[in-house]
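Morning, I've got a small favour to ask if you have a moment. I'm working through a protein record and want to make sense of it properly. The fold is given in discrete form, as structure tokens running alongside the sequence. Can you walk me through what the tokens say about the fold? Thanks so much in advance, here it is:
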Amino acid sequence: MTANVSQTSQATKYFVLDTNILLHDPLAFLSFDEHNVVIPMVVLEELDNIKDRNKDVSRDARVAIRSLEEVLKDATPEQIVKGVPLTQLSGDHQASGTLAIFPDYELKQSASALALNENDHRIIQVALELQITFAGSTVTLVTKDINMRLKAKGAGVKHVEDYRTDQLIDDIRLLTKGFYQFEGDFWQQVGDVSTLQEGRDAYHTVSREHMPQIFYNEYFIDETEHFAARVDTFDDTSVTLMDLGHERLMGYSAWGIHPKNIYQAMAMHALLDTSLDMVILTGPAGSGKTLLALAAALEMVVEKGIYEKIIVTRNTPEIAESIGFLPGTEEEKMAPWLSAITDSLEVLHKNDESMDSSLNYIMTKANIQFKSLNFMRGRSIQNAVVILDEAQNLTASQLKTIITRCGENTKLVVSGNLAQIDSYYLTAVTSGLTFIVERFKDYPGSATINLNGVVRSSLAEYAEEHL
């Protein structure tokens, strides 16, 4: 027995959504244009089980349930099974197909089918049933679970895909680095240059003819170790560069920390620039992302008094689940997950005679707060430097939640290593970190720096390059 899903057009495609798709993007069912979206009943059961848990993903489950209810609230049971027209518009999501709920509890066990006592198997069986019913159409199972994709193909589902609507690049090698290195001498390649001097800063306007694709606040360097600049403004014909100079960049410092290479120097310049609302740091383990972010934050809060506090957060291995109900403050419970921050604090104060008292003093003076992502929702953060570490394990939706918390006079530093993703459902190209790098390259208040090279130790560098 198969459900009476609409058969109005054999050319129409059918997409069966797994639960993790709606947790990844609660409005995912609106992202399939004119095609039909089918959600198995077991997916609603799983959303119902997740929505009341004390987890970060519980909010996404509730949003998905409310969004589905908004579309289906006026439909009859028969219409819901057959498919309700989607005419919803929400942000970038627009759909003109249908949304149906498949009553998978009606599925009957057959000799060739997967055991239906597992939820994943019920979802796979829905795709197989639709594949038989709509033999002339394409039926695709959409899931972020790699193992489920393998099982579905093994069970006979012809089309199985990851959810790629929020995937902006197909190859991680194409990810924007935030800088461009010219071969040879930059000045010998650009031709005519007009220069404007403003105080100690020089601005050079050059033709775009010999320039790569330009992004806001993109850094330029060359092989001479003399030239360094950042994009200030640009149009279709010319680019105005802020002349930074290689030596001048390498002379920057924050909280006693000096850059060890030009990549760290560019990062430090961006971190200390209060005109930038967000700085994204990518790169391998040991490249200095966390240390530079914390040093710049201390410099701007304690020394310069530009901001009032430092808020440090990251996702926990369970994707920002509850930090529990055992005794202890939020900071104490988050401490194990933020050891990279405390390690960096120790490095910054290793020469102090009494490091423990110095650390306590700085923690108080800089008003450093350790926060769980689960408690960042609903807040409006003002006058602060927010350091979001290990962002490679977050989805685009989760990162959007954090970014939209930042209010007036707040600087957000997002860092992560795309080679160390712990999430079951994310890859380097589908990570939220990759998404915001690509999405914010066109935002004038943001800069991205990929920190090439490992400076932690020769052992760490060898491991990064050879393992």
